[in-house]
Amino acid sequence: MLKEAGNVCGSPFVLFIDGVDLMESANQPQNMEWLPQPIPENVVIVFTALEGDKCHQSLKRHAATEMEVIGLDMWEKADVVRNNLAEHRKILDESPFNNQLKLLVSKKEASNPLFLKLACEELRVFGVFEKISGKLKSMSHTVAALLQEILSRLEEDIGKETVCTAMALLVCARDEYSSLSVSPSSESPSCVRTGECMEIR
Fold it and tell me: Distance between CA 171 and CA 85 in Å, rounded?
């Protein structure tokens, strides 16, 4: 298939695989032996992986060209925030005495674009303009903690049971179960394997 793609494309066919280090460990995909050898002509495969991970080491053994991706600098962080909020016609105050933008880009993991994207989405749905500064000050500093914050907010907005069910369905979709049984319950839903299906209780 890759060979055919390379043949029909006028410019190089680029296949981008993000987070290759997050692949399931079944069949030991980290050794990268599933890569076609040689890579078809006019085809470029781009991977992202954590430095030092097994996938990273395997790619080095395959003599892959390596490029380190560093975190965003202060100017880039500010641009990401401005551009994300501008899509929804929102801005943060950047005045010297109430620099809301600085509060956000100074967070511990603000150099991670995912953190800034999640934070901007939270600010987008935050309805009390006068309390934006307080929201920014109390906002978590890491992606993991911010996700917990978002899930807690969603549980208040639409109900804990709905959020739990949605998360359980995402797990089922990720694991590609062939069938699904949903059982209503007063308790929080949980996934249980039952042969070839995943039951949500």
Answer: 30
12-29 burial: b if 16+ Cβ within 10 Å, else e: ebeeeeeebbeeeeeeeb
Q: Please state whether the predicted TM-score (pTM) of the whole model is above 0.90.
A: no
Q: Could you tell me if 177 and 196 are in contact, meaning their C-beta atoms sit under 8 angstroms apart?
A: yes
Residue 184 preceded by cis peptide, ω within 30: no
3-state secondary structure labels for all residues of 111-147: CCHHHHHHHHHHHHHCCCHHHHHHHHHHCCCCHHHHH
- At residue 176, the pLDDT reads 58
Among residues 46, 117, 133, 41, which one has the least CA distance to residue 84?
A: 117
Nearest C-alpha neighbor of 65 from the set 50, 52, 49, 46: 46
Quote the tokens at residue 106: 């100074």
Listed as ranges, residues in the chain with pLDDT below 70 are 27, 174-201
192 three-state secondary structure: strand
Longest dimension (CA), the chain: 61
pLDDT at 197: 41
